[in-house]
Design a protein that fits this description.
Chain lengths: ~500, ~350
């Protein structure tokens, strides 16, 4: 039975103008199996998903679902045929202003022959049935906008599953979940697998892949670069196939700070949170690690002058530091590469060089008048330095892949010397090779400043930093040097073991 | 804007540039669509000018050109102001009423308070700046959405400008509410703002209002495109949070945009008062819509798809050319609003449909 492919793609091709994104992709999905699709950013994963889910039409090749040709002209058609996609952006999958029950049956409110009137009782009972089938333990009358991200995603998936699809596509579903939340998602995926759904699971995260994969398919440059289905799965081989090169083990030669730069003393970032202290010095790269929602971003934004601390004090270079605004922080030489570059980093109407110079306009202008030549020259240096793949510094950042957009966001703050450079989740939605480029650049340029990263993924921290501060419940609960490599103890702290500061 | 069509610097070699292999392939392939988006609107304007020149007698004369500029000068000035608020992602619906309030204030200061032209101008500018400041404060600190705040301000000003004279228009020798007669007059210096014509090759050709329009257009264009303040205003309008995280005082930029808008509108009001020679309660009804239309038409110019000063000026000119040309072809005056509306709809479709699909 495992040999029966429910869904078969053969020779699929798709080009946007001269840009050939899919160059003949062939893939099989089997009932009751999780097929993981790995690929660096720009490999064509998103395009493949969009073709299969009916957003784009393929230029060539064939798709066969249950022995019948499948060529959806719209997402609705794909859904009716039995191929359901849950997209990466969770809020695209739910309507925030409606309650859980209505969200669960939303698709059934459309279409011919549904009747004109909205029957709340019918909706409620139908929703209860779906929730029960999916093992969804949520208050059905709760408003979706008020649910945590993970619950919203559960709702989106449960709704998708109400169609009893043959094929479920999950596009980077854990990218904004904490590990506890992810575990709930995995349980749901297990449940669906046991019901015989063929699942295509797209992810960058090795922990997801190890947990779920029955087979791994590596996509590179619009082609299938490797198929791994023999047990035990060859994870390393899959990564190598995806990247097309072998990644050596990354050895951090741990550096010690040469000179103290920044200190937090009895800092409290939220009312009711315990105070904590830490110090940072020049030359070292430090990560604050912790789950989603433990206050990492709050801490970053407090140091950057967006929030005022509730208590305690900060010192920078020996003098008191209490920025009232990001502008003041920037003047003091404290920079933040903020989380979620689309919302807080990139200005969409601006070209690359305009995005890079944004915080430093006074330095690129004379009597208020911009000097484009120096501005663009500086941007070109950064582009070369960080290996941003683009045509020129005048490109629109939206034309870049996620990894390259992130490089632009990082390059902006590397373009001027800083005393403390903070990066909040700099590797989110960034492919592995761009991640390595950014991490290498950070370490290479770290000598004259303190560098502080805020990371959820331990792997990312382990391959980038010298020292780790563990955050839990809006306070710092532990400290580890990377060379200790005592992951077990560290994990206990991350999970909220709550030992005193180490 | 900023030289995006300038060929790559020959000095490029001074810095290493990472792979740009496509650049050579990309340059010559200026597709018809790209050309259409970029120059379509200007070509249409040029085509209309040629058409009207051939179809009517006298359209292609300096006098007609100046007349067109004069007819759009006040609208154009208001439109340039509202462009500043559009750049920061806002909107200012109060510009029309700021202009008429400023007109009434100028008349009141001179006719009733018997002050000179300079005082009248300063009072008007102060009113514009103050109303802009209040708009900005309400929008930024009271969190009232821009459209609603400025709509409210519009009503408030329309009512306020009638209170001092109990609803009467203001003219020299008018009867005051208490039965006395106003002693003051419009000063000749003030009236010159609306009526003086400068020599420009031909004696007495260019009216002062056109000079003001051109000067303000160049000023705001330079400010928005070439100064760091203008750059930051575009950043605020495009992604306010990103601008904040880049250290910009976002609210200050927004408030300044409304102050600019208010001051420009009050300048428009000064010119209106100077042209009419009285404070006319009934004039200036169309100012808001005409100005907003010009600024929105400006989105289509050079394929900018965003508010820009050059586009706004061209947009105002476009409306002026169309109306003047049609008038000279004896198209009745009551079709004017229809024509303006049609131009606006075409320009918006052009901007959003063509440019929207041009993207990724």
């Amino acid at each position: 039975m495992a040999d029966d492919a429910v869904f078969r793609i053969a020779g699929l091709g798709k080009a946007f103008g001269p840009n050939e994104v899919l160059k003949g992709v062939s893939l099989e999905l089997r009932a009751g199996e999780v097929t993981v699709l790995m690929g660096a950013n720009g490999a064509g994963k998103s395009t493949l998903v969009k073709v299969v889910s009916g957003v784009h039409r393929a230029d060539g090749g064939s798709m066969i679902l249950d022995g019948r040709p499948f060529g959806p002209a719209s997402p609705a058609e794909a859904m009716r045929a039995g191929v359901v996609t849950v997209h990466q952006n969770i809020d695209d999958g739910v309507v925030g202003a409606l309650d859980v029950a209505t969200n669960l049956v939303l698709d059934q409110l459309n279409g011919a022959g549904r009747g004109i009137f909205f029957n709340p009782r019918g909706v409620r009972s139908r929703a209860k049935e779906i929730a029960g089938r999916m093992g969804l333990a949520l208050d059905l009358s709760a408003e979706v906008a008020e649910l945590p991200l993970a619950d919203r995603q559960m709702v989106a998936i449960a709704r998708a599953m109400a169609h009893e699809p043959r094929v479920l596509i999950l596009d980077e579903p854990t990218s904004s979940l904490s590990s506890n939340e992810a575990e709930r998602l995995f349980a749901l995926v297990d449940h669906l697998r046991s019901r015989g759904v063929a699942i295509l699971y797209i992810s960058h995260r090795m922990s997801d892949i190890r947990r779920l994969a029955d087979r791994i398919v590596s996509l590179r440059d619009g082609r299938i670069a490797g198929l791994f289905e023999d047990r035990p799965l060859d994870y390393e081989g899959a990564v190598n196939a995806m990247l097309g090169r072998k990644l050596g083990a990354r050895n951090i030669d741990s550096r010690v700070p040469t000179r103290p730069v920044f200190a937090a003393e009895d800092l409290r970032i939220l009312p009711g949170a315990r105070p904590f202290s830490f110090g940072l010095g020049t030359g070292e790269v430090v990560a604050v690690v912790g789950l989603v929602g433990v206050g990492k971003t709050r801490l970053a934004e407090t140091i950057f002058g967006i929030h005022a601390p509730v208590g305690g004090s900060m010192r920078l270079g020996g003098s008191a530091y209490a920025p009232a605004s990001p502008a003041e922080a920037v003047r003091e030489g404290v920079f933040l590469v903020a989380k979620d570059r689309a919302k807080t980093g990139i200005v969409p109407d601006f070209k690359i060089y305009e995005n890079m110079s944004l915080p430093f306009l006074p330095r690129h202008s004379q009597f208020g008048v911009m000097r484009r030549r120096t501005e663009r020259a500086a941007a070109r240096r950064q582009i070369a330095d960080l290996k941003v793949v683009c045509r020129s510094e005048r490109d629109d950042p939206a034309t870049l892949s996620g990894g390259n957009q992130q490089k632009v966001a990082v390059a902006r703050w590397l373009s001027q010397p800083s005393r403390l450079l903070m990066l909040d989740e700099p590797f989110q939605g960034v492919d592995i090779s761009a991640r390595h480029d950014i991490a290498a650049k950070l370490r290479e340029s770290a000598a004259d400043r303190a560098t502080l990263l805020f990371l959820t993924e331990l792997d990312e921290a382990l391959e980038t930093v010298d020292r780790m501060l563990v955050m839990s419940e809006h306070t710092i609960v532990g400290e580890y040097l990377n060379r200790e490599g005592d992951i077990e103890r560290l994990l206990a702290d991350v999970a909220g073991g709550g030992r005193g500061a180490a | 804007m900023e030289g995006r069509d300038v060929p790559m610097d020959s000095k490029l070699t001074e810095d290493r540039v990472v792979e740009m292999p496509e650049i050579a392939a990309e340059r010559p392939s200026l597709h018809l669509r790209t050309i259409l988006i970029r120059y379509g609107f200007l070509a249409l304007l040029a085509g209309l000018v040629v058409f009207f020149s051939l179809a009517t007698r006298g359209f292609a004369s300096p006098q007609a050109a100046v007349f067109i500029l004069q007819s759009v000068s006040i609208t154009g000035i208001l439109a340039l102001g509202v462009t500043a608020t559009l750049v920061v992602g806002g909107f200012d619906l109060s510009i029309g009423s700021i202009a008429t309030s400023s007109m009434m204030a100028a008349a009141y200061v001179m006719v009733v308070l018997e002050q000179n032209a300079l005082v009248a101008v300063l009072v008007c500018l102060a009113i514009g700046a103050l109303v802009g400041l209040i708009n900005g404060l309400i929008i930024c600190y009271m969190r009232v959405p821009d459209l609603l705040a400025t709509l409210g301000m519009m009503f408030l000003l329309i009512g306020l400008q009638r209170i001092p004279t109990e609803g009467r228009s203001i003219a020299a020798g008018m009867t005051m509410p208490d039965g006395s007669t106003a002693e003051g007059v419009f000063s000749p210096a003030f009236l010159a703002l609306g009526r003086h014509r400068f020599d420009f090759f031909i004696p007495n050709l260019v009216p002062a209002s056109v000079v003001v329009l051109v000067v303000l257009a160049v000023l705001i264009w330079f400010f928005l495109e070439y100064t760091r303040f203008g750059r930051m205003m575009y950043a605020v309008g495009s992604n306010a949070r990103a601008a904040e995280f880049a250290g910009a005082p976002v609210n200050a930029y927004k408030i300044w945009a409304y102050v600019i808008s208010g001051v420009f509108a009050s300048i428009g009001g000064i010119l209106l008062a100077a042209r009419l020679g009285r404070g006319d309660i009934a004039s200036g009804n169309n100012l808001l819509l005409d100005a907003v239309a010009a600024a929105l038409i400006g989105f289509a110019v050079l394929g900018a798809a965003k508010p820009n000063a050059l586009g706004t000026a061209v947009g105002a000119l476009f409306v002026g050319v169309v109306l003047q040309g049609l008038t000279m072809m004896n198209v009745p005056y009551y079709t004017q609003d229809f024509v303006k509306g049609a131009v606006l709809v075409v320009a918006l479709v052009f901007t959003f449909a063509l440019l929207g699909r041009n993207g990724r």
